Amino acid sequence: MSDRDTVIELVKRLPSNLSLREILREIEFIAAVKEGLSEIDQGKGVSIESIEQMIEAWTTK
Predict the structure, then answer these.
(1) pTM score, two decimals?
(2) Are 27 and 6 in contact (CB under 8 A)?
């Protein structure tokens, strides 16, 4: 699905009373998710083990 089609489908599913700013936030969220998934597909992701170590370091201080 193209980015344009993704936005069209998103807007169709959103409540009709959202402001333009709220719609923009939804589009930005979807764009960030798609970008993250693309990075994972390219092998640029962070392993679960690395995340667990980071969280453990944050919570044991």
Answers:
(1) 0.68
(2) no
Which residues of the chain fall short of a pLDDT of 50? none
Spatial separation of the C-alpha atoms in residues 33 and 36, rounded to whole Å: 5
**CA torsion angle 47 53 58 59 (round to 10):** 120
Name residue 39's amino acid.
E
**Token pair belonging to 39:** 């990075």
Contact 26, 9 (CB under 8 A): no
Rounded to whole angstroms, the Cα distance separating 37 from 51 reads 16
Nearest to 29 by CA among 45, 2, 6, 5: 6
